[in-house]
Specification:
67 residues; mainly alpha; 2 helices
Length: 67
């Protein structure tokens, strides 16, 4: 029995996981900044966005270790 090929849409799923994690972390940062007030919402939103990049890479790496 030959091993089955991985699905061809794995790259799209990995990309959507990355973008979804980035948006989620940015929204969490923006929400936390809105609770604090002032210009902290923009600053924490951007910090959440960059933290989302790192978190998204870790999520994709954990889910698709062979990509």
């Amino acid at each position: 029995m030959t091993p089955s090929k991985p699905p061809t849409n794995r790259g799209a799923v990995a990309g959507s996981l990355l973008v979804g994690t980035m948006v989620l972390c940015a929204a969490i940062g923006f929400g936390a900044g809105a609770l604090i007030g002032g210009s902290a919402d923009v600053i924490l939103g951007l910090a959440g966005l960059f933290a989302g990049v790192v978190a998204g890479i870790l999520v994709v790496r954990g889910r698709f270790g062979d990509l």
